[in-house]
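User: For my dataset I need records formatted as: sequence, then structure tokens, nothing else. Please produce one.
Assistant:
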Amino acid sequence: MVFDIDWEFETSHRKNRVFVHKMAWIPLYEISDDQVWIYLDYRISKYVIKVIKRFIKEGIEFLFLSPLFSNPKNRREMDFHYQNIHCYLANFQIPNFYHDFEKIEFDLISNMIKYIKKYDYFFIYLEDETKVPIVKEIFEKVNSQVQANWGLHGNRFIEWNVPDVEIRTRFNNLWREINISYLI
């Protein structure tokens, strides 16, 4: 299925993973427990976009995985779902990914909502059985980085962490979009 695809770029297949060569062999996607995972890695963004386009064309369902988990040892040490959702939102702010997703008409937020629903991770339950919206916490953390700016003293020039106005504006309304998509 996903391992039988011939790519126009150099790949290698080992065990349950496909690697792409870019100065080193970097994991591109893998299958684990009948789930196809694409590593949402900025270093290989060009290849990630090509894989997404091909998987959509072939009708292959997939979710994204943080590149932190390319080492299986890290999956046991870190909060797996927290890091993956953070990766979804953090990569949404990168202009290359954001605009390439728009070009291929792929909705990263819908894919993230599919991930959240599959693993039931919108809320976490504390010991006293109170619900805490963990996705909102992650969103606010990333949004504070997106909206951050600074200027030189005595100068009207303002520098933004994310210079793309379209991305900053989308982030202003993104929490509402996430909530509505989750409820549907």
